[in-house]
TrEMBL record:
Gene Ontology molecular functions: 2-oxo-4-hydroxy-4-carboxy-5-ureidoimidazoline decarboxylase activity
EC number, UniProt record: 4.1.1.97
Catalytic activity entry: 5-hydroxy-2-oxo-4-ureido-2,5-dihydro-1H-imidazole-5-carboxylate + H(+) = (S)-allantoin + CO2
Encoding gene, per UniProt annotation: uraD
Species this protein is from: Nocardiopsis exhalans
Protein name: 2-oxo-4-hydroxy-4-carboxy-5-ureidoimidazoline decarboxylase
Length: 184
């Protein structure tokens, strides 16, 4: 049987995974909290380290992110800026947030500016209806797409909306976990 080398596909070392696996549990928890600020999720993902491969980490993290509770939604929302507001701070999580929302303000033509003003109004309606900020996985989505999503979600009842927000948090955590792995 031929020997495998690290240069063969599938056998190449994953520096991002190696970096995460080498972290202390405390440092790993800190890194993971940037992806999803839910203590149960952070503890569950950290407790299963070290991970044998990236796919296992991503699958386990995704599994633990499913079923986020309404209390966990409230905690996680506290760290997210409103769509259209730039995240303050120089930390990694703030930089990720600015990048995830970059498409929202990318278009500066008059029509896009109108969409953004309408969005701001609808966002206020959402906050009045649900008592929380509107959260969506905004990565790569235009202001028009986000407005359509926001308007559609205004028809949700409270329980449905909490489920939707939990799903959006799950998507965001997956994207951010990949970014964490790529940061090595």
């Amino acid at each position: 049987m031929p020997e495998t080398t690290p240069d063969q596909p599938g056998d190449a070392p994953d520096p991002g995974l190696a970096r995460l696996n080498a972290l202390s549990k405390e440092d790993l928890r800190t890194e993971l909290a940037q992806c999803l600020n839910v203590d149960r999720w952070v503890e569950a993902v950290a407790s299963e380290a070290p991970y044998s491969d990236r796919e296992t980490l991503l699958a386990r993290a995704d599994g633990h992110a499913r079923g986020i509770t309404s209390d966990e939604v409230a905690t996680a929302l506290a760290r997210h800026p409103r769509i259209g507001e730039k995240a303050k701070g120089q930390d990694t999580e703030s930089a990720w947030s600015r990048g995830e929302q970059s498409a929202f303000a990318a278009d500066t033509d008059d029509a896009s500016a109108r969409v953004q003003r309408i969005f701001t109004f609808a966002q206020g309606e959402y906050e009045g209806r649900f008592g929380q900020i509107y959260l969506v996985c905004a990565s790569g989505r235009s202001s028009r797409e986000l407005l359509a999503d926001l308007v559609a979600r205004l028809d949700n009842d409270r329980d449905t909306e909490l489920t939707v927000v939990g799903e959006e948090l799950r998507k965001i955590s997956g994207l951010r976990l990949v970014k964490l792995l790529e940061a090595a």
